[in-house]
Amino acid sequence: xxxxxxxxxxxxxxxxxxxxxxxxxxxxxxxxxxxxxxxxxxxxxxxxxxxxxxxxxxxxxxxxxxxxxxxxxxxxxxxxxxxxxxxxxxxxxxxxxxxxxxxxxxxxxxxxxxxxxxxxxxxxxxxxxxxxxxxxxxxxxxxxxxxxxxxxxxxxxxxxxxxxxx
Length: 166
Prior knowledge:
By secondary structure, this protein is mainly beta. Helices cover about 10% and strands about 40% of the residues. A 6-stranded mixed sheet has the order 3-2-1-9-10-11, covered by helices on one side. A 5-stranded mixed sheet has the order 4-5-6-8-7, with helices on one face.
């Protein structure tokens, strides 16, 4: 199963559509700050949460289960992710997540802490502290996750990601 992980698109729906078309994921996770009307998001299998800049009535957090794994999705602003990943990790543990997906910092992050994989795809529109906009792809087979990070043109970023088993 292929999962596309994006965040902080900040109104760039056309760019989001291009990435989805190129990657052809089975499911999309958007970690908030989409900053458009909900009906302007692509009509694909998608889990979306509300970011601090969103006005649409979507959940602030969500659980999605796919390929035998449990994903916790949040924007991250309520969990102080710009300071430390620990509060969002603990929330993920509370809800029994294998993978915690968050945004808000606009900075790509990938680390397994204990039994929880923490993933921030960065921002496809306005990177902070990283030289270019990014998104992540997850290939999940038999509870093994291969996480790859990409520039918005699809070029892989080799210094991010990895292979993780659950």
